[in-house]
Design a protein that fits this description.
With 334 residues, this protein is an alpha/beta fold. The strands form three sheets. The chain has a five-stranded mixed β-sheet with strand order 3-2-1-4-5, sandwiched between helices. The longest helix has 19 residues.
Length: 334
């Protein structure tokens, strides 16, 4: 017995997510693991885990990748479609949340806001600069307060008098938190104050000038934090919907895009198979000296002996499956 599925892979700076949907676009399975600075290993481990817990044989008809490591993941597995995170999250939300018009997405290292009207993205914004608007900010401060991140939300909800913490900058927020802590604020008031600070930062940076209409979907790892959900509901004055698979919505969206691509083009998938999880890959970095740009070129090879160092890009030999990084595209292979 086999099940026709479409695979989506979302490679982020903090976590890597994989998801499967069936021919009707319904959720089948997903898995999330830490990227840990090794996206190749994360993709391979994810593939091995997905297939190890499969209840039947999966017949993959299409693969989509997204996230900051989407090009790398696409080269590794043989993706049929490579899309940005905005498109992936929007497709997943509009598929599973009827009438969604606003998507709040906060991950470990960046955050996004997506505005939809009639299922079409009309506006978006991203924050990849300020740490005070990301999940890593909450994680770091939870460690400072000696609170497990899993208990952050539940503890924050106990707050009756949240501390007013400056959230415009991660450095200032940390200094303000220490000051409030020394004044004797209870931990729960500090935690919920942090939630409110992050929400203020998010709305003032990303939502400025945008009309945030319900239904509002909250996606990404930070949506697990019930304190953040409450803080957004208070700030926006509306109910926030947190999807069941909010952490893997990017991967689900990539899978849905792969399904749409296959149904439209009716072409065979480029997927290399589940054995990708056991293949040997290596990346080699070399500067191009062809002009004053001095571009850093990344080459991905499959198999072969370990390459320690090369002087020229042309010296790289072996089964090259992808290459990018140049401004002019001279060396690109994808």
């Amino acid at each position: 017995m086999s099940l026709t599925v479409y695979l989506g892979i979302d490679v982020g700076s903090v976590t890597t997510k994989l998801a499967l949907v069936n021919e009707e676009g319904k959720y089948v399975d997903s898995y999330m693991l830490k990227t840990a600075g090794k996206p190749v290993n994360a993709v391979q481990e994810g593939l091995k885990h997905i297939i190890s817990q499969a209840i039947c044989e999966y017949d993959v008809k299409g693969v989509g990748t997204t996230g900051s490591g989407r090009n790398l993941a696409g080269a590794l597995v043989g993706a049929d479609i490579v899309k940005n995170e905005i498109t992936a999250h929007a497709v997943a939300a509009s598929t599973y949340i009827p009438g969604v018009q606003t998507i709040l997405e906060i991950g470990g290292q960046d955050s996004k806001i997506i505005i939809l009207r009639d299922g079409i993205v009309t506006d978006f914004a991203m924050n990849t600069v300020c740490a005070a608007g990301t999940g890593s900010f909450l994680d770091h401060q939870a460690q400072r307060l000696n609170v497990p991140i899993e208990e952050f939300g539940a503890t924050a909800l106990k707050s009756t008098n949240p501390a007013r913490i400056a959230g415009r900058c991660g450095v200032f927020a940390e200094s303000d938190l220490i000051h409030k802590q020394q004044l004797g604020y209870p931990v729960e008031d500090l935690l919920y104050g942090l939630c409110q600070a992050l929400v203020r930062n998010y709305l003032s940076n990303l939502a400025l000038g945008k009309e945030l209409l319900p239904t509002v979907s909250f996606q990404g790892g930070v949506a697990t934090n019930s304190g953040m959900v409450k803080a957004f509901e208070e700030a926006l004055g509306t109910k926030i919907v947190v999807p069941d698979n909010h952490q893997t919505m990017g991967a689900i969206g990539a899978a849905l895009l792969a399904m749409e691509n296959h149904q439209y083009t009716e072409t065979n998938t480029k997927f290399k198979g589940w054995e990708v999880g056991n293949m040997n890959f290596q990346s080699v970095t070399c500067h191009c000296t062809g002009c004053s740009n001095n571009c850093e070129i990344i080459t991905i090879l499959e198999g072969g002996e370990k390459i320690e160092h090369v002087e020229k890009i042309s010296d790289i030999k072996g089964n090259i499956i992808a290459r990018w990084g140049g401004t002019c595209g001279k060396w690109d292979i994808n």
